[in-house]
Write a structure and sequence with these properties.
The chain is built from five helices and 15 strands. The chain is mainly β. It has a 14-stranded antiparallel beta barrel. The termini are close together. This is Membrane protein involved in aromatic hydrocarbon degradation.
Length: 423
Amino acid sequence: MRRKWSARRLAGVAAVMAAGLGAPAHATEGYVALGFGPIQRGQGGAGVATTGFDAMSGTINPAATATVGRSLSLGMEVFSPSRGYTADGTFFVAPGSHRSNANYFPIPNFAYNTPLASGGVLTFSAYGNGGMNTTYGNFANANCGGGSGVYCGGAAGVDLTQLFLSVAYARKDGALSWGIAPVVAVQAFKAKGLAAFGAISSDPTSLSNNGLDWSYGIGLRAGLIYELSSAVSFGLSAQSKFNMSKFSKYAGLFENGGDFDIPAQVTAGVAVKASPDVTLMLDYQRIFYSGVKSVSNGFVTTAPLGAPGATGFGWDDVDVIKLGVAWQQNDQMTWRAGYAHSSNPLGSEDVTLGLLAPGVVTNHFTLGGSYAASERDSFDFAVEYAPNVKVSGGEVTPGGPTPGRITVDMDQVGVSFGWRRTF
């Protein structure tokens, strides 16, 4: 079997999966994914304190794969966010109700776990961490004096995609499992319809409609799981901030000449085996959007777009509580359910640009399961739903605030499925 699944073949599979991960997508905690793979999604993204589920579990906590064994996981999520805005009495933003187009996105994931002779394991994974996408049409805008689109620049929107490629090392020493995962991150971004902001940009030629641009960086995930008893375990996982290369084509849009780093985050949790067949999970996660100025800065009048300290999307840090349960009904069937509640990153004062990235949902309900078709093959599935949330606030134009009101809203539905093979 080792010969069949050679390093070259695994690299080929990872490359194919990584190519698919270029699809744009929203995620659920701002633009950070609720979970990676159908097992995590089925239990509300919880599970930082559990081990032994599958190779993808290392993406939430690198320590989790220490007891997985040789395993391959392939998965796909079909994600459907519905997002838009309503504007009334505005001087700049197009009035009326408008919905973003492009509502279905495929998001694949891949992971392979292989034990080492030394007692540790290596996990290779490729997965989309999140992203944001809006595509508003070239509709009439009475505020433009003959122009059109949300911001008087024609069809408008942004498209951010993030891909993570990692190689993790994990091992179990007594009651302690630990893991560390160097991660390479790749971002792709493009924006259109923002030319009217050129009057307040430090570089109007690098602001909008410049096609796709790429950004690269390296970060680190690390985690541990400690078994307090045979029934209770504690987990802790952290991700460093990724200092990414700049989006040079959008140096006049993002703060500090195109900076768009990936925020740090930390997750802590506990897992309790309420019975031999039932596991309960509780996680707390904090995402530090405040560490990325192009995301967290509010409207700034003292610096033009793209300059150090300039305007960003105005997002706050996000706190997430995740509850999950896994019930092994029998040797073939396991059921999962979950709920996650997150704070809203977008405030009422930042809705003018926030309509480009309305990641405002706060409640997430999930259901999933796994079916063991044989001793080696299992099939996983999950569905997730985030009810509609609205945030309203005043319009802010390149010339300053107006009496206009804007309401952004979003809801989400996702369906995940996957296949696992143990060797």
